[in-house]
Amino acid sequence: MNRRPTLLAALALTATAALTLSACGSDDDSPAKDKDTIAGADTGGKKSPSPATSAPVSEDRPKIELPSDLSYTFDWPKTGDKEKDAVLADSEQSIKAVDMAIVNQDPLDKAYLYYYEGEAAAETEKFVRDYVDHKAAITGSYRFYAPEVNVGKDGAASLSYCEDQGKAFVKYLETNKIKKTEVTAKSYVIYHTSLRKNDKGVWVIQKIVSQSGSAKCQP
């Protein structure tokens, strides 16, 4: 699993497993953000729900609560296919759930474990723990776009999508200092996920890999 390659670089970490992050800009003391965002991303202080996808309401489904300095834009409108739209909705929640674990400084946060299992869950735990070990969190605006989803008849699915990390940043909790790096081609990342539908009807992620600098994701 490779998440946000630049972030780990910003934290001066040794590459571990496939988990990574990215951040852009220059050092700044003002609140910013630590995720990935592309041209046209929402830069406001409010969380921006997807206009086309929303996770089904469920008593078991964890509530995702994120601070106001994190905002999201999901440019993946409904497909009209019930299962494909469910994959998109659950994937949106899974992304936010990982961020909530970072905000909560909890490598075993129950919210992301609701959406990740097996290899993906183990690597996500390492990913979140890197932040905790460095007393770091995330801040900024994120934009996800260009989704390609396929659903098989065997309860399996795949989803590829792009993320712009240009306005995503690392925030150090002890000093409240924001780490920014220059926006480059590597600020644009493509993700490939493998999912399965569990007995609760939730599309959970089993594997996730990413590649920074993807030509397909460049603005």
Structural class computed from helices and strand pairing: alpha+beta
Low-confidence stretches: 12-54
Basic shape: globular
* Strand segment tally: 7
Helix content: 10-25%
The percentage of residues in β strands lies in: 25-35%
- What is the first-to-last residue Cα distance? 24 Å
SSE pattern: HEHHHEEEEEE
Q: Give the helix tally.
A: 4
Radius of gyration: 16 Å
Overall pLDDT level: 79
| Largest sheet entry | 7 strands, mixed
Note down, in words, how this protein is organized:
By secondary structure, the chain is of the alpha+beta class. Helices cover 22% and strands 27% of the residues. It is built from four helices and seven strands, in the order H-E-H-H-H-E-E-E-E-E-E. It has helices spanning 5-10, 82-104, 110-113, 118-133, and strands at 70-75, 136-151, 156-164, 168-172, 177-179, 188-197, 203-212. Strands 1, 2, 3, 4, 5, 6 and 7 form a seven-stranded mixed beta sheet that branches. A hairpin with a 4-residue loop joins strand 2 (136-151) and strand 3 (156-164). Helix 2 (82-104) runs parallel beside helix 4. The longest helix is centred in the middle third of the chain and has 23 residues, at 82-104. The model is unreliable at 12-54 (pLDDT under 50).
